[in-house]
Design brief:
2 copies of one chain form a homodimer. With 245 residues, chain A is of the alpha+beta class. Chain A folds into 2 domains: 131 residues, Sandwich (Jelly Rolls), CATH 2.60.120.10; 81 residues, Winged helix-like DNA-binding domain superfamily/Winged helix DNA-binding domain (Arc Repressor Mutant, subunit A), CATH 1.10.10.10. The first copy, chain A, has 7 helices and 11 strands. In chain A, the strands form 3 sheets. A 4-stranded antiparallel β-sheet of chain A has the order 1-8-3-6. In chain A, strand 10 and strand 11 form a beta hairpin. In chain A, helix 4 packs across helix 7 and helix 5 packs across helix 6. The radius of gyration of chain A is 19 Å and the shape is globular. The first copy, chain A, starts with 23 loop residues before the first helix and ends in a 13-residue tail after the last helix. The C terminus of chain A is likely disordered. The interface between A and B is large, with 48 and 48 residues. The first copy, chain A, binds a DNA duplex (30 and 30 nucleotides) through helix 6.
Chain lengths: 245, 245
Amino acid sequence: MRGAKRDCRSCQAVSYCLCCQLTTEEREAFENLAGTRRVLRRGERLFAQGDDFRSLYIVQSGSAKAYVISEDGNQQITGFHYRGDLLGVDGMEVGMQTYTVEALETSSICEISFAEFERLHANTAGLRQQFFKVVASELAREKQRMLVLGKLYAEQRLAHFLLDTAAHLEGRGLAHSEFVLTMTRHDIANYLGLAVETISRLLTRFDSADLIRVRHRQIRLLDAARLRALLYDTEQPVVVLRATA
Amino acid sequence: MRGAKRDCRSCQAVSYCLCCQLTTEEREAFENLAGTRRVLRRGERLFAQGDDFRSLYIVQSGSAKAYVISEDGNQQITGFHYRGDLLGVDGMEVGMQTYTVEALETSSICEISFAEFERLHANTAGLRQQFFKVVASELAREKQRMLVLGKLYAEQRLAHFLLDTAAHLEGRGLAHSEFVLTMTRHDIANYLGLAVETISRLLTRFDSADLIRVRHRQIRLLDAARLRALLYDTEQPVVVLRATA
DNA sequence: CGTGACATTGAACGTGATCAAACGGAGTGG
DNA sequence: CCACTCCGTTTGATCACGTTCAATGTCACG
């Protein structure tokens, strides 16, 4: 499919993509940017840390995890990504990908040559604006994650994860009060800086407390309000205590 | 000083600034961008989370801390910033600052009207490139921080902080094997997701082990190699053990 | 010289990790 | 169809890292 013209109008991610603000002509120019549509199966990599940076990527459908690895092999999942998400920005101007992206399920991803993107970016106001927007929100989102990893209790981290995932899915026009976790418990644990066992126990507790309903990877949010309260009231725990329960 | 023309050539941060790649004419256009040079004293804020977004800021001299606050008042320092650092990017297109910046010492900061910056950005390749570079490296840096906050032991976090600070200072043309920590122990602890007491104890331990020399806020790196080893060898601790020592 | 913020040091506790084992579902082959 | 394996998940018991609580120490500044 290399070299095939993009067809953004028929893409599932069009409303959440970099091209969502473009005029018809601009979008046509965007569609003509070189690149491939890639389909990845669970476990396959889109790119890996250290790879040459040549393209930006946008998730069209499916989901993926992104992670960084340190010199000693320590691995940290930095994010889970759904349709519309832009991947690979970090590598601009360093010439190298700074993290790895791996599909969590069969996923389709749109590749865009960065060199050509740069040219279009230079003379397309709508693209610049949307790019700013995406990058700014990624920066802000990462700062929020520092707060999660630096300050929250295990219980709060999981509550945050569930609510944040729901919100993210909602923003992408996907089902959000009931959804499937495409990642393993191990992935969630890694993402939240906790042990797998902790995730497993907390999910069970949340289920018992009727905050959520968990059945394997199927999640239903039963009481988002109480989840949110759990996240904010550090003094007076709501239902599921840390020590108690 | 509002409206005063910038004079980049005499600025301490010129080699590390957004304007560092510009041609003479381009830099003159950059100098003409509206904005103020602001001088902040220790504890004064450059902007606060929730403020209207109107400008970008570049540290000219001094240092500052940036932090986010959650609804329940939980606070997380997201970064310490030195000359050349660009601040406020996260607020682009959201119209609102997403974090707070506070001076750690008397500091001078260059304010740039975003509206005007955007115009110059549109037709100045060098500015776009440098902006990409800065934003990409901030994104990558934040991902590294997730690894620190999610995976490392207290000892490794502090080692990372010291080495990372040194590297950052070096990249900014500042003294890096011996430097002054302009932030309190409390700030370091918050930044690293640890308690103040832990920082204090570890600094003492690092000093005893001749990894560094600490005297109040004055730090001298004695053995960067061993600090680095401490950071990577999780199996075979180098000198300063976790349980032992 | 007193006051207050910042920093250090010690002792006890607690959250979440680690270790260990069993369980369950999905896929495979007899 | 059923054993079988494999991987992901759950559950229980113990342990440890880092927190919390408390007290003392130190520096800067009125």
